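User: These chains co-purify. Model them together.
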Amino acid sequence: MPERPYTADEMMTIAAARMVRNGAVCFVGIGLPSAAANLARLTRAPDTVLIYESGTIGTKPAVLPLSIGDSELAETADAVVSLVEIFSYWLQGGRIDLGFLGAAQIDRFANINSTVIGPYDKPTVRLPGAGGAPEIAASCGEVLITLRQSKRAFVDTLDFVTSVGYLDGGNSRDRLRLPGKGPTAVITDLGILTPDPVTKELVLTSVHPGVTVEQATAATGWPLRVAPHPAITAPPSNDELTVLRDLLDRTARAHGTHA
Amino acid sequence: MVRDGDLVALEGFTHLIPFGAGHELIRQGRRHLTLVRLTPDVIYDQLIGMGCADKLVFSWGGNPGVGSLHRLRDAVENGWPSPLAVEEHAHAGMAARYAAGAAHLPFGILRGYLGTDLPKHTPNIRFIECPFTGERLAAVPALNPDVTVIHAQKADRKGNVLMWGVVGVQKEAVLAARRSIVTVEEIVDRLDAPPNAVVLPSWVIGAVSVVKGGAFPSYAQGYYSRNNAFYEQWDEVARDRGRFRAWIERHVLGTKDFDGFRRSLEGAVSHA
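Assistant: Joint model of the two components:
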């Protein structure tokens, strides 16, 4: 059967969704992570438990939320708890398998910045800030990060460390004694990066169909390490594309906006 | 009940945001406020753009689902209309601060912030060693606002308040505050709240006031949904200083209450 055409963003969301193990308890950020986590729930991981930081536990939204506390999340949740409770009993309490984060900037050790571009006291761009990310990155069993790959986003040195990946690499995260083991994959519109088991530096281990290794290295602000034989990500299946597009269409109709 | 220079929390986590009360602070021309909230959004953008605040204590400042808060950014990046000091936390830290404030404990603790740059810029994030296990934990001081303002679904005639849905940190923020104001959608004869519902008894609340639709353009679960078009259109209004001032003058300063504000918007905002 001929492959259906798809966009780089669709490939990114689908590749990220495939990383969600069925039954995982998943703490989800808004935007790309939310699309990927819901796609996983609607395809190969139907028993995934989605938790948003608004305190909505086991939520099953029919459409993607526009804000982290949309009524859709509360109405379809198994339980809705206060913010004090979600961050203490549930997140810091170690009940989350998988944290799903986006970012404005990332470095080679998967530390992320969502605070400022430029100096903190005189920023060129003031970003929204940390939100729940630092404790998601610290406390979830593992973390997936999804963002578009470019030199502006994949930087040699972060302007601000909002959330910790592997800090300076090697065993430096271990020294902090954080409960979670850290990021296990970074899924972009070009490919998939995973940390080296020893140095913890991100390695390009898969490129999406039609993407070259050179494109990925050119979109990275440090000399990107590449696996000896990077895999080629399986293209989106018919089912994955159909479910994702239906979800995005439903979302756009519900919000009266473009998702 | 809100005075110049006060530490003020208008809380709400994308739901039940007290827009009506926030507009009243703009009309009264309050100055030198320290504004506190986990998620400063459009109402804080309006207060900051009108020069009501000297300082913002927060953990995520954006227009949910849309992008930046342009008035907040202009104040931080360019000092317009006046410089804005920021004290920045993470959500878990802010939640711990309110919980400590509600308990009248001096500080809250959390497993957080380790390895991040936030403690370098926020002296109110410090680290302590657990006296029992030796674990290194973050400590953050209790937050006790001079005034907390929230919006809830209903109150009964005695002033007991019931809220449900995404309830955020509103209960803790009210209990932590020296004074509190609750605006509600309606006053009913009987709350009929189930035993474990989020009810704030009248005697922990300073004042209750009916502001129907007072969370617009955010939502009130069971009453009305979020007006997403407003949030999208705010992005355009807030990008430009002149357009922002004109909008506030026409829709907030030019109206005497929240009903007037809503009427002035008719035709100006499409309903999603």
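The two ends of chain A are 29 Å apart (CA to CA).
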